Amino acid sequence: xxxxxxxLWQQLHDAGIVTGDMPNTVDIEVTPWYVRVxxxxxxxxxxxxxxxxxxxxFKDFIKQEEVAFVLGLLLIGGAYAVFRQLSTAFAGQFGLxxxxxxxxxxxxxxxxxxxxxxxWLMIAIIEAVLVWVIPHFLHRFFSCYAAxxxxxxxxxxxxxxxxxxxxxxxxxxxxxxxEAQWLTQTTRFRPIAYAFTFVAIQMHSTFSLxxxxxxxxxxxxELSAQTWLIPINEVLLGAMLVLTIVKLLxxxxxxxxxxxxxxxxxxxxxxxxxxxxxxxLAIAWxxxxxxxxxxNRVLLGLGFFAFWSYxxxxxxxxxxxxxxxxxxxxxxxxxxxxMRQALKHLRTEETHHA
Length: 354
Prior knowledge:
Blueprint: H1 4-14, H2 33-57, H3 59-62, H4 65-85, H5 89-109, H6 117-133, H7 137-154, H8 164-177, H9 186-207, H10 211-217, H11 229-251, H12 259-277, H13 281-294, H14 297-317, H15 322-353
Helix pairs in contact: 2-5, 4-5, 6-7, 7-9, 8-9, 8-11, 8-13, 11-12, 11-13, 12-15, 13-14
């Protein structure tokens, strides 16, 4: 019976890709997923019972804000030690519970000063440091999410608040477009990229509902009155969509002045103009393009989810009759089909000439 690995090595050797004898193979034990899930739940239960035991002993001391803050930092430090020493599912969930409890204690200790922007800026800096130093995917994701959210809250009284969705999307685009450059650091940058993506979608979904929705989400805090920047934010997002298309055309060596390139840029410009009215579509299409170009199904799924969510919201809030809404849907569908046929025709024509 032939060995598939030996056959593959022989084919590579005949093609001149490799030389010499086939190296010895190493058997890698892969723990079944259900065992890892059981280990994760076990780690959570162990951490919960340990914390309950500690809190029952020191419940009177924890009520003091200084003690709670110190204990919270100690728990986060303990989580860091667990992540550094062990890499099992049990240790990962155990460390997460320790860290989340430490975060809760620190927030409790700082709750009197949470109305101060400098406090949120300090939280953002601390979370950014944790993103960089703690080697765990979920912890980095939640820490980065918390850091960006804290930064948004810190700028809540500044005009830049209304531009935060577009500024966050700039980071999202840069991270995913240059994914190949940080593959050696993928365990560090991938959770950061996903966190920025989630924050961008959530933040824009809230901001696009208007001042009242943001005021409610901010729990009555004073907001920047420069709401005229909200349309500017949508213009910037549309420009980012067109620039993303241009960058992807350059990556795949498609000239921007070619028929395909011009058609893609024109389609992007049309979508950018549509997104000024149906807000959010620019973000969705950026994520779809980035996910498709990188073969990232998770990012592609987020893009499609955002697209249908934004489109459904726009359809629901459209202040016209149901019959007119039906006409809008029919017209949009016909336009998309025509654009698809035009791109397909241009591609066939260029292939024929080549």
